[in-house]
Amino acid sequence: MHLRKRVLVTGGSGFLGSHLCARLLDAGDEVVCADNFFTGPRANVEPLLDNRRFELLRHDITFPLYLETDRIFNLACPASPVHYRRDPVQTIKTCVHGAINMLGLAKRLGARIFQSSTSEVYGDPEEHPQTESYVGHVNPIGERSCYDEGKRCAEAIFFAYRRMHGTAIKVGRIFNTYGPRMHPNDGRVVSNFMVQALLGRDITIYGDGSQTRSFCYVDDLVECMLRFMETPDDFTGPMNMGNPEEYAVLDLARLITDITGSSSRIVMRPLPGDDPVRRRPDISLAERRLDWKPRIALKEGLSRTATYFEGLLRSGELRAD
Ligand code: NAD
Ligand code: UDP
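A: This is the predicted complex of the input protein with uridine-5'-diphosphate.
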């Protein structure tokens, strides 16, 4: 039998958060979504507002939050390079002050808390694939450092609370995830290519497209988060979460033009600073501890994502200007 829990999701109106909130409600939980709507529009969770077990708070986690809850999923943070570089100071505050505030809440309540960390803690990795024991290769002052170092500091704070206060932490290092409700203008590779393909614009490859990423469909990722949260308190992570199938960015572009039937040209643009060359998670820890592995193949996930973006195009939310 499922015992109803009270669950706080920070960043709940974002891409991952909105899927997580929906899944928690489906499971019968009470969900409070706290978001400042910096990158996640209210519209992402509007369909959930009819559910009496759902509550939406406009709140910035760099300020303390007082409420009662059994579980905290700390997802609040701009996640795409375009968004986090727009306000690097706020990004660091969200990672660091946000972690302290949410851990303070967890400590007071004895609640379990999940931290959405990231593959970016590995930086431009010198080890491949990345296992959790790899300590990373990060430029502390580079263009991505507000995010990479912010998330690394958040991990440090989580483990300090664990050591000092015994807080029940779950640190998940999320690798590139995609799916419906990605922000069309967030500059991430899947959303960019989808929008460009559907609008018939040039598909912009940064560099020569030989850099690799491993893409996880959102439903698989959310399932992994939910399972992780329900593991015993002594299993803290850090744990990689993602899909280990690795693709070159150029191959991704070709796949997306095929799926959308687009006649867009593929063009090369300069590579942004500190762009990692290769990235693929070793997920054996998640497989072993959670009996979990991703189920949705890239082609299938991209087709579902294309259906979402086609809907935006039909409704006028994506416009060729
Ligand atoms: P997103 O930008 O869609 O969602 C982030 C949400 O946090 C947004 O709704 C935003 O408004 C909110 N937010 C930002 N700053 C806030 C603040 N100070 N207070 C309250 N709310 C705030 O991004 P996402 O892809 O859903 O990512 C969610 C989390 O997962 C992030 O922490 C991100 O770092 C992590 N992550 C995501 C990926 C990915 O591929 N999607 C990969 C690694 C890690
Ligand atoms: N990328 C690209 N064209 C785009 C957007 C991104 O070639 O229009 C590349 C980017 O340089 C990176 C990869 O795709 O090598 C993934 O970028 P994204 O911003 O999605 O995520 P991250 O770099 O954080 O993994």
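DSSP finds nine helices and 13 strands in the chain. The first helix runs from residue 15 to 26.
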